[in-house]
Amino acid sequence: MKKLLTALALTSVIALTACGGDNTDTESRAVAEIEGNVITEAEFFDALKEKHGEGVLLALVQDKVFAAHAERLNISEDAISSELDKVREAYGLTEDEDFLNFLLMQGFTDEDDFRNLVMQHLVVQKVASEGAVVTEEEIAAEYEAGKEIEASHI
């Protein structure tokens, strides 16, 4: 119980310290203070960049590339909404709150996060199918090749 109270008090001090302060200099603005030791905003940002910077930058670049492709391929908000409606219908999610809870359970932060994934999926789908022509003969050949697979139960 004592450890819990200490952790709670420490968290409160950090939160209050992070909210306070009117210094606008990033190099010296304190975001936390623990027993007289100050963590500046600059130190905090440097640590974030060092530990997660590459992954965050990659995610930002990927988002921008997909957004540019979506615009170039004329993937509209209506197309994305239509895909969301299909998901809602498939899972019987008629209420917005139910849909949001479903998304949260799937690991999305909100509907925009899911919309972004749907947009990326539509881009990949459209790019992958460009110029792809499948003849009836190719379909029949693949179907026949699938019949020749021999499987046994162990």
Describe the structure.
The chain has 154 residues and is mainly α. Helix content is 68%, strand content 6%. The protein has 6 helices and 2 strands, in the order αββααααα. It has helices spanning 2-19, 41-72, 77-90, 96-105, 111-129, 136-147, and strands spanning 30-34, 37-40. Strands 1-2 form a two-stranded antiparallel sheet. Strand 1 (30-34) and strand 2 (37-40) form a beta hairpin. Helix 2 (41-72) crosses helix 5 and helix 3 (77-90) crosses helix 5 (111-129). The protein is elongated. The model is unreliable at 1-21 (pLDDT under 50).
In short:
With 154 residues, the chain is mainly alpha-helical. The chain contains six helices and two strands.
Tell me the strand percentage band. Answer: 5-15%
**Major sheet: order of its strands?**
1-2
Share of helix among residues? 55-70%
Order of helices and strands: HEEHHHHH
Shape, per Cα inertia axes: elongated
What is the fold's blueprint, element by element?
Elements: H1 2-19, E1 30-34, E2 37-40, H2 41-72, H3 77-90, H4 96-105, H5 111-129, H6 136-147
Antiparallel strand pairs: 1-2
Helix pairs in contact: 2-5, 3-5
Provide key terms for this protein.
154 residues; elongated; disordered N terminus
